[in-house]
Amino acid sequence: MGFAGSVIIVIISLGAAVIIKNYFFAAKHLPAPKLDLNKYWGPGSNALYKENTMVKSYDITVKSEVIEDLKAQLQRPLQLPEPLEDVDFEYGFNSYYLENVVKYWRDEYLVNWPKPQRAEGKTVVPLLLLHGWPGSVREFYEIIPLLTEPSDQNNYVFEVIVPSLPGYGWSQGSSKKDFGSAQAAVVMRNLMLRLGHKKFLIQGGDWGSIIGADMAALFPHNIIGYHSNMCGSMGSTAILKTIAAYFMPSLFYDKEHSKFFKPLPELFSHQMAETGYLHIQATKPDTIGAALTSNPVGLAAYILEKFSTWTNPQYKHLPDGGLTRRYTLDALLDNVMIYYVTNSITTSVRLYAEQFSQSQGQLQLHRVAVTVPTGCVRFQNELMHFTDSQLKERFLNLVHSTYHNHGGHFAAMELPKILYKDFIDFVKKLDI
Fold first, then answer.
1. How far apart are CA 174 and CA 178, in angstroms?
2. What is the DSSP secondary structure assignment for residue 395, as one 8-state letter?
3. Overall fold of domain 119-262+365-428
4. pLDDT tens digit at each of 432 positions of the chain
5. Residue 226 is a catalytic residue
6. Which of 131, 156, 168, 206 is catalytic?
7. Is 61 exposed, middle or buried (0-12, 13-18, 19+ CB in 10 A)?
8. Within 13 Å and on the Cβ side, how many CA atoms surround 400?
9. Is the CB of residue 255 less than 8 Å from the CB of residue 308?
10. Is 130:210 a contact under the CB 8 Å cutoff?
11. 352, 366, 400, 422: which one is catalytic?
């Protein structure tokens, strides 16, 4: 039978077990769980905390000694092992190219530090942009001006709010356990209310897609519409449809979209190759955090490798990982610097451990229907795709569903104009 055949049988068996347990013996949709909307997640006792609701500017200037210390670290000999012969990015970040990245980081990028970038526009509709890991607010730098500047092509201009997720960048991480996507959804919703936006749009990918969907499920009265470049559905029948589509693809998607949906053995192999980081971060986040903290070269390799194969899996066959085919080194290093100067790699990856915790699973948010208007855009090289049939199990008001034959996981950073147009096409279908 072989390994692939065994894997298929295991997947089918597990899928059947999940369906029997969760579908035939449980309600398809659940009411939204009741969460504490004012829970204190900071250090120490809640009794000693007094909330400050003032909205004020925040200085993100990096101290000069931090930059000088980074330069000194990048001056040290790397002593990296040579890659195997005839290996590009197949084994991870190629050490030859890593030397080039470090040289550019040290001798060109940091010479021009800092490089502030700003975008301004007329406010019409509030829009919350949510990033993921290992991205940051830097992913949205190129799309923000498109959203905030008036265009002759449409009547929409947005007030864009782009927060670092809790534990990422300049946003304080939780000091207590059980802070997963549901709790992040509460924090993001409270932030928008504090800014005076009782109703708003959401766009996000990666963690932003999960948190955005949770916000739409928990607070539909606040959400005008939800748009994502990584929509997903984990309902029991959605799993069954993944299996069934392997044997009867024509029942689930058009032939022109077949390249978006990999055969089960290929999908399994791809997921195994690209999600090793997830298992580490979901089980031992502080260990990998300790390895990467105060280690700029290791941090860069760990983060930038994802911008290679998550943009295009074929880039692993290139000696430079194809990193500068879609991005500039400046943009990539901007993203690394956000993690480095804020010392947020450990607090960022803890979100994985909390998301896979028992307390988060008991909320069963994936079984809470999303009734707000939803738009889903698929970029071909995303890690995984779902059919409309699967998505409609959770997103009951799917009004916009599109496919793009290029692009990958970091759509806002890689193809900002295309993502912007898709988002605008979605907004045009809403009653705003």
1. 9
2. B
3. Rossmann fold (3.40.50)
4. 443 444 444 444 445 444 444 444 445 789 999 999 999 999 988 877 778 888 888 888 899 999 999 999 999 988 899 999 999 999 999 999 999 999 999 999 998 776 554 434 344 699 999 999 999 999 999 999 999 988 877 788 999 999 999 999 999 999 999 999 999 999 999 999 999 999 999 999 999 999 999 999 999 999 999 999 999 987 767 778 877 877 777 778 888 888 888 888 888 898 899 999 999 999 999 999 999 999 999 999 999 999 999 999 999 999 999 999 999 999 999 999 999 999 999 999 999 999 999 999 999 999 999 999 999 999 999 999 999 999 999 999 999 999 999 999 999 999 999 999 999 999 999 988
5. no
6. 206
7. exposed
8. 22
9. no
10. no
11. 352
- Catalytic member of 227, 366, 385, 409: 409
Are residues 109 and 183 in contact, defined by beta-carbon separation less than 8 angstroms? Answer: no
Catalytic residue at 206? yes
Identify the three-state secondary structure at position 389. Answer: helix
Sheet architecture: strand order including 398-404: 158-161, 125-130, 200-204, 223-228, 374-379, 398-404
User: φ, ψ for residue 377 (rounded to 5)?
Assistant: -115, 135
- How many residues in total does the chain contain? 432
The residue among 368, 268, 227 whose CA lies nearest residue 7 is: 268
Listed in order, the ranges of the chain carrying CATH 3.40.50.1820 are 119-262+365-428
